[in-house]
Specification:
The protein is an alpha/beta fold and about 160 residues long. About 40% of the residues lie in helices and about 25% in strands.
Length: about 160
């Protein structure tokens, strides 16, 4: 009985130490990799930040990015790259409004982009909106009330056909 107790404790202790060593090694390696990425990385220029809730929403833009660099941040994923000649940051922020607010705040603090676009699937904005519909603004205002007319025009006939 005593031998079984001693062997059991020895095995438990040895296994626990092996797990701790492996975890410590993995964390140390990840820390070194993160430090190397951080040292090698300059803060990208950002003309537009585009914030999505999920990867599936961001895929269409990500597929068009050139020179893409992706980073897993605390609570969101950030992709920097060039899109149609513009330096952009694409953010996959998460599904809750809190996670989107945190990710957007982090991007504003880090990059200070002149424009932020909240993009993705339209859900629950208004009961008239249907699955698969598109919501486009006529104009966009920034924090200094500068106005950008989007120029999106749709014919009255097309509107009637969709309602």
């Amino acid at each position: 009985m005593l031998v079984r107790y001693l062997v059991s404790n020895y095995l438990r202790s040895t296994a626990g130490q092996a797990v701790r060593d492996k975890v410590e090694s993995a964390v140390s390696e990840q820390t070194q990799n993160l430090q190397q990425v951080t040292d090698d990385r300059e803060i990208a220029n950002c003309e537009i930040a585009i914030v999505f809730a999920s990867h599936i929403e961001a895929t269409g833009v990500l597929d068009q990015l050139e020179k893409i660099v992706s980073v897993q941040c605390a609570g969101f994923v950030e992709h920097t790259g060039n899109w149609n000649g513009l330096d952009v940051v694409v953010v996959e922020a998460g599904d809750s409004w809190r996670s989107i607010a945190r990710a957007t705040t982090a991007v504003i603090n880090l990059y200070q982009p002149p424009w932020i676009v909240s993009a993705g699937f339209c859900c629950a904005l208004h009961p008239k909106f249907r699955n698969g519909g598109i919501v486009m603004p006529n104009r966009v205002l920034d924090t200094q009330n500068r106005r950008l007319d989007v120029g999106f025009k749709i014919s009255e006939q097309a509107v009637k056909e969709t309602t």
